Each structure stands twice: as structure tokens, then as C-alpha cells.
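Example record for the data management plan.
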Amino acid sequence: MADLRKLKEQGAPLAILDVREPWEREICHIEGSIDVPLQTVPDRVDELPRDRPLAVLCHHGGRSAHATAWLRQNGFDNATNVRGGIDAWAREVDPSMQVY
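Corresponding structural encoding:
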């Protein structure tokens, strides 16, 4: 989590893929993330950047682990699962963010 925060603060070339459902993102989200629900990732893969690291997150890390595995099998060697998901981000990085 600290590495993602550091990269984001430094403005490093990084994309954050949020695979949660729209109702979850309405509660909280990381500004600038790419919102693609898990079930639609295969259909929307062409929307994802291949030219920079791709940090994949969900609520706690389970769905994003599945998405990361699928992405890596399909040529996204730069995809990394964000363990702890948005919940860990809210608790460790941005305590002003609502948790659910």
C-alpha cells in the first residue's frame, strides 16, 4: 500500500484499475482510477493501458487478484494486485475516505 501511495504522490506513470461495482465506487474511490467491473474486464480490455504499471484493486483484494491473474495471462505483465484493496487504502492512506 505504501508503494502505491508513493508512486501516486510522485505522479509516476501509473494506472489504477478499480474492478468494483458502480454502487461500491459511489461510496468511495481513488480519483483518476479506471472503473471496469470485474465481469466486464475481458470485454473492455482494449480500454486498459499497456504502457505503464497497472495497479488493480477491489474492496479487499479478492476480485482484483482474479482480475490481475487474468490480465497477466492476457499480456499485461505490468498488472499488480493491490492487497487489501480500497479498504486498506482508506484505513492506511486516506482516512477521510468512507469505508464499507
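Summary line stored alongside the record: The mean pLDDT is 93.
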